[in-house]
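**Fold in tokens:**
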Amino acid sequence: MERPIHRFLHLVFALGALHLLVLLSLEIQRHFQTRHDIAAAQIRLEELEQRNQKLNDELQLAADARYREGLVRQMGYVHKDELLYLRAQPKAAPAPNSSN
């Protein structure tokens, strides 16, 4: 015959095992979520490093006086003694009518 205390101990053991299983599943879920977050952070880091490299390249170009002068001339600026001649844009040929 089984004693009542043994039934209680079996119940405690079963609840403890269930609790352990739930905690283990939560830890596994957290582990995979953390791995996903780390992968996303690494991708973001690579993007930022590429952007940083582009900005460093642009800074090196900006240190060159000829590059800066080229940018300024593209905006239409000229030196004090220079004249700016504007070319007329050629008109596009009219599209042929399909109704003829």
Remarks:
- The helical segments are 4-62, 65-74.
